[in-house]
Amino acid sequence: MTNNMEEKLLDLLCDQAASGLNEDERLQLEKLSAGANSDMDAQSLELAAAAIMMAEMGAIEAMPSHLEASIAAAAGKYFTAKGSESSIHESIHDQPTKAFKWQETRPSRSFFDWFGWAIAAAACVALIGTFIYEQNRIGDLQAKVMQLTPTPVVEETLAQKRDRLKKEAADVTRAEWTKGNVKDSEGVMGEVVWSDEKQEGYMTFRGLPVNDANKEAYQLWIFEDGKLEPHPKDGGVFNVSSDGEVVVAIKAKLKTNAPKAFAVTIEKPGGVVVSDRTKIAALAPVKTA
Amino acid sequence: MPGLAAASVLTRNFYAADAKSTDGEWKFRTDSGSLLSTDNCRFVSQTILQRIADGDQSAVQDCIKSYGGLVWSLARRMLRNTEDAEDAVQEIFLDVWKNAERFDPAQASETTFVAMIARRRLIDRIRHVQRRISADSLDEILAEPSTRDDKVLQTNVEAREAAKALDQLRPEQRQVLQLSIVHGLSHQEIADATGLPLGTVKTHARRGIIQVREILGLGETAGRKEVSV
């Protein structure tokens, strides 16, 4: 196989792992794979793709117990059909087992045993002395460090960060929140600000209902002009835990440019990759000048 | 050598609590209760999938407990509704039983292998759904490229390692991989959506995935081991 052919084969294997192949590409791969040992590469690239998917997965949820039971039942049927239940496993476990005991030998105590204890006791005394000395020294050091430690810098609140962004960024996009399609969103007010240059933005809400974080979460979606439509970008998942004004930082996972609208949907905890858009809590179209 | 002869028995149900080191030599309890010395042999505990491949049905519960959350979370993140996710999870576990014997701990961790099987099934389903959706009304879709929550939330070590590997890629490579691998978009769809030339999309995807593979050491026969003592 020539270098060019090897490169083409690797390209196809990468494409296959990342996004699948079309019919032509599949035929090319079959042709190039014939005679080449590409199985290992194919699987390692698929494993890499799986690892990437896990990286993007977020928090792990527990599987519902009814589903667990159903899978266990299906496994029972599968193994029965496979006829492997009476394999090596059973033959091992049918054997009588004995309680395991560590072999412990207790030789009679000799002079060397007592000598050993004496050495150990002396070492303990030395250790205690060292400990007391070290404690005093650490106390002195801590006092010195306290004198040298500067006053901690108070981190900006989200509201302060938002205000700073509005003041400093030259390209701030603003939009006002309006009600969505759920009843509780009637009184939603506030604004969203975003800077393309800084890739930073904040949402300010008033009247967005407190959500039960165990049951649902709010998720922001950012619509850009013409790009990725109808695939808006995820702006992050958040919860509202108090009434009054709430400021939330936008966590856009991908570079966002010239947003044309923002939407907050109500999703399951942790958010979703694809929203069915049944519950929209707030909408903020960007008004063009 | 008696130790080696017993190794095949020992490896089926070996737990760290059953091992004890005395005088620098590790000894292990066998199922029959006898004490074995390691002598010159190395004991390797069987992974869950290896036990399944051997027809050990008790490993099924271990498998569901160990990977149920992972598979369920992947399905929930990638599919639109709970019913679809439940169906997919059942199919995935069936695939896992069927493919258990193909697992090689020298190439990847068991978690990554299970995730790979899950991904194959989920991508199939996503592509089917996308075709169905595009035949309906695109206006009804609110779809989005993959998301990554705070890494702190990720509870499996492989996910954290993979996240670190992704962070080492160029942003364009990362974006293309997110769109293709997680969201199931074709290269052409990514090119249309991002405005990048098709060739550039392909290059980003290829270089990115190869880099991740190298960083994580996947598929290296002499590389990582799942469990060894």
Unreliable spans of chain B: 1-44, 131-155, 221-229
Note the total helix count of chain A: 7
What is the average per-residue confidence, as pLDDT of chain B, rounded to a whole number?
70
Helicity of chain A, as a percent range = 40-55%
What percentage of the residues of chain B does DSSP assign to strands (E)? 5-15%
Main sheet summary of chain B: 3 strands, antiparallel
Helix content of chain B: 55-70%
Gyration radius of chain B, to the nearest Å? 22 Å
CATH topology of the largest domain in chain B: Rna Polymerase Sigma Factor, Chain: A
Question: Largest interface, with Cβ-Cβ < 8 Å?
Answer: A-B, 82 and 103 residues
Number of domains of chain B: 3
Radius of gyration of chain A: 32 Å
Structure description:
The complex is a heterodimer of chains A (289) and B (229). Helix content of chain A is 41%, strand content 19%. Among the domains of chain A are: 3-55, no CATH class; 171-285, Immunoglobulin-like (Sandwich). With 289 residues, chain A is an alpha+beta fold. In chain A, a hairpin with an 8-residue loop joins strand 5 and strand 6. Chain A has seven helices and ten strands. The model of chain A is unreliable at 84-110 and 148-152 (pLDDT under 50). In chain A, the strands form two sheets. Chain A has a five-stranded antiparallel sheet, with no helix packed on it. Chain A has a four-stranded antiparallel sheet with strand order 1-3-4-7, covered by helices on one side. Chain B starts with a helix and ends in a 13-residue tail after the last helix. In chain B, helix 3 packs across helix 4, helix 3 (58-78) runs parallel beside helix 5 (110-135) and helix 7 packs across helix 9. Chain B folds into three domains: 2-37, no CATH class; 48-142, RNA polymerase sigma factor, region 2, helix turn helix motif (Rna Polymerase Sigma Factor, Chain: A); 144-216, Arc Repressor Mutant, subunit A, CATH 1.10.10.10. The model of chain B is unreliable at 1-44, 131-155 and 221-229 (pLDDT under 50). Chains A and B meet through helix 1, helix 3, helix 4, helix 5 and strand 6 of A and helix 3, helix 4, helix 5, strand 4 and helix 6 of B.
